[in-house]
Design a protein that fits this description.
Subcellular location: Cell membrane
Domain Sulfatase N-terminal: 296-575
CATH class of the largest domain: Alpha Beta
Distance between the termini: 76 Å
Strand order of the largest sheet: 3-11-10-2-9-5-6
Radius of gyration: 29 Å
Helix content: 40-55%
Structural class: alpha/beta
Number of helices: 19
CATH topology of the largest domain: Alkaline Phosphatase, subunit A
Pfam family, one: Sulfatase
Low-confidence stretches: none
Number of strands: 17
Shape: elongated
Membrane topology: Multi-pass membrane protein
CATH architecture of the largest domain: 3-Layer(aba) Sandwich
InterPro entries: Alkaline_phosphatase_core_sf, OpgB/LTA_synthase_biosynth, Sulfatase_N
Number of domains: 2
């Protein structure tokens, strides 16, 4: 058999593998859309779905080309080089392996989307910085891991057997061409066809880069869910990697001292040349606005979102406790409010350091353990006469939280290892026992500033909520259709109800013991639970900012105020510090009428929320998706955001000194 005959036969086998794997990609895309069809928007029609499937097919040409390229190299070329038509085993092994990987990723992608409302993205890399044991326990409990493994191996086995049968189907022999010219023309056509096919695959169904499809331009649907369905798992993983690398690059910016001064001028509006970047954060308090609290409790609720507090969701009855506090005259809340980032530690980092999130992970930065950041909340509260404590319902080793918070000025740290708790899971104590532990350990008259971080409202949802008094009837009035029978959703809502119940009980207990205490409530992040498949940006990402205590009143903040976790520190200081007290903060106090909040991905104002770096804007409404409007000074606000990030980067990576 000639080499050309071998090439012709082997290429047919590569083509069979290509068509089969491409069909698997399409099969999983259709299955993904069908299984999660509840996330399809109400205005989406068949044309949108067809468009998503077409562009998905195009982008999967690239993903299919990966395995076929290796098949070409290790089967076809080797068969030609050694003039042996028996190099089929590598192709078969590659095909089987790719099918297993795709099946595994498909089974992971579904719960990932249900949590993050996205196919794989850069947040995937945060897993490697989290408590892997607790994550594994959560996955096993929440997603029935043994059954999923059976499904993965069963489907893989079926698809592999079908592939084997396909690869063993008959191939055509090289056409007989008696004329030399015809044979040469055929060979040239074959070579040209291979090259064109490779280009066609590389550009996702196009022969030019200008018309190519890739993950950056594949969002052709008006439906966010379908845009995610367009990306197959290989492309989604590549997007996650590319975004992560971009963030790493942003986190290793080579900012010059001149650029630092430019950022400082943008942030302060003043042309100054300090020796240390901290001077750009220097502010002076305008004078106390409330009686100085005996104790301050800043409570960060795990996944404690803003949307259950809105009137539109009052029939769910899962935030009745906090609503009862908000009804009091000495309570106030700011609704347009964002967490520092998308995860718990991102929120903690922002509150503890006063720095915006930019994927630098302050809790892992060496500088965080060398010096206390001037913008940090604990050290500044100590200057105001408070003993500082951090209380965590989980374990002290998680994300280095104890060593990090102590290094950043907290005098004391307590975790679930410091008090008895009768129930909990891999993430720590249930809220009931966490608050009881604080109540028991908290027994002094010295003024104190306390940060509390809960953990129970988090997968795996293991609290016995029925024993705590929860029944499905509590939330059923607020659910419609199939949601009324969704036991998993009701369990999640029950855990929010549980978190709210014991949060409010703790506030009541401590208010009785220490009547002059100030309570501040927020959430670490919000993007975990919604009752609507396609929530607005506000429903998905906003967290509450609530203050309750002596001196607090409904008109404390301007009606158009908006902010984020970065505003908590300066707001507290401006409420209690004497006039002229020098403090450091990047953000302004909400008492000064700040009307713009932001985090790594989003911005928020009094009437709109949007995605940074895009034109996506939504009005702050939870019912109608009306077009939002950007603030009049939006460009200046984004410049300030860029300046804050640059200055934070300089402080965390260089120590803050500005060379001449």
């Amino acid at each position: 058999m000639s080499r050309w005959e071998i090439v012709f036969r082997q290429l047919q086998k590569d083509l069979k593998l290509y068509i089969f794997i491409l069909a698997v990609f399409c099969l999983y895309r259709v299955a993904f859309i069908l299984y999660l069809s509840k996330y399809i928007g109400p205005t989406t029609d068949f044309h949108d779905i067809s468009l998503a499937l077409f562009y998905g097919l195009r982008i999967s040409l690239k993903s299919t080309g990966i395995v076929v390229l290796f098949s070409f190299l290790f089967s076809t070329l080797l068969a030609v080089i050694f003039k042996n038509d028996k190099f089929d085993k590598p192709r078969t092994i590659l095909g089987y392996s790719y099918i297993f990987i795709l099946t595994l990723l498909f089974h992971i992608r579904i719960p990932y989307y249900e949590v993050f409302h996205a196919a794989f993205n850069q947040f995937l890399f945060n897993i490697f910085r989290d408590d892997t044991v607790a994550l594994l326990v959560t996955v096993i409990h929440e997603y029935n891991l043994p059954l999923r493994f059976l499904s993965i191996f069963g489907i893989t086995l079926i698809l592999c057997r079908i592939l084997r049968a396909v690869l063993h189907t008959r191939t055509f022999t090289l056409p007989y061409l008696p004329h030399r010219v015809g044979l040469i023309a055929f060979k040239l056509s074959l070579i040209t066809g291979i090259a064109a096919f490779m280009v066609f695959t590389r550009f996702g169904g196009s022969l030019t880069y200008a018309n190519s499809v890739h993950w950056e331009n594949a969002e052709v649907s008006k439906d966010p869910f379908l845009n995610e369905a367009i990306l197959d798992d290989i492309q989604a993983l590549y997007r996650a990697y590319a975004a992560h690398e971009a963030l790493k690059k942003a986190a290793s910016l080579n900012i010059s001292p001149e650029q630092v001064r430019k950022y400082g001028t943008q942030l302060t509006g003043k042309t100054i040349s300090p020796a240390n970047v901290d001077e750009y954060f220097r502010q002076e308090a305008q004078g106390a606005r409330i009686p100085k609290p005996s104790h301050i409790f800043l409570i960060i609720g795990e996944s404690y979102a803003q949307w259950p507090l809105l009137p539109e969701f009052s029939s769910l009855n899962i935030a009745s406790g906090m609503k009862s506090i908000l009804s009091k005259d000495n309570a106030v809340q700011v609704k347009p409010f964002l967490p520092t980032g998308a995860g718990t530690m991102a929120g903690i980092n922002g509150i503890v350091t006063g720095f915006p999130e930019e994927n630098l992970y302050p809790n892992y930065q060496p500088e965080s353990y060398i010096s206390v950041y001037a913008t940090g909340i604990a050290a500044q509260m100590k200057q105001l006469g408070y003993r500082t404590r951090f209380w965590y319902a989980g374990f002290s080793s998680w994300q280095q939280i104890e060593t990090f918070t102590r290094a950043q000025g907290f005098d004391e740290f307590y975790s679930c290892g410091d008090f008895p708790y009768a129930a909990g899971n891999a993430w720590g104590s249930e809220d009931k026992y966490f608050y009881e532990g604080i109540n028991t350990l908290f027994n002094d008259t010295q003024p104190s500033f306390n940060v509390l971080l809960t953990s129970a409202n988090h997968p795996p949802y293991t609290v016995d909520i029925e024993a705590e008094g929860f029944s499905e009837a509590i939330v059923s009035a607020g659910l419609s259709g199939s949601a009324k029978a969704d036991k998993e959703l009701i369990t999640k809502l029950g855990h929010f109800w549980y978190a709210d119940k014991y949060l409010v009980k703790f506030i009541a207990d401590m208010s009785q013991r220490f009547p002059q205490s100030l309570f501040v409530v927020t959430g670490d992040h919000a993007d975990r639970l919604n009752i609507t498949p396609n929530p607005t940006l506000f429903e998905r990402y906003a967290v509450p900012f609530i203050m309750y205590g002596p001196g607090i009143h409904k008109n404390m903040f301007d009606a158009q105020v908006a902010g984020s976790h970065l505003n908590i520190g300066p707001t507290l200081i401006e409420l209690i510090a004497p006039q002229g007290f020098v403090y450091h903060s990047m953000a302004k106090s909400l008492t000064a009428g700040d009307r713009f909040g932001f985090n790594l991905a989003f911005w928020i104002s009094d009437n709109a929320i949007g995605v940074i770096g895009t034109k996506t804007v939504e009005a702050l409404t939870v019912i109608d998706r009306q077009p939002g409007t950007m603030p009049n000074d939006f460009a200046g606000q984004i410049q300030a955001v860029t300046a804050m990030r640059g200055l934070a980067w300089w402080r965390m990576t260089t120590g803050g000194n500005i060379a001449n």
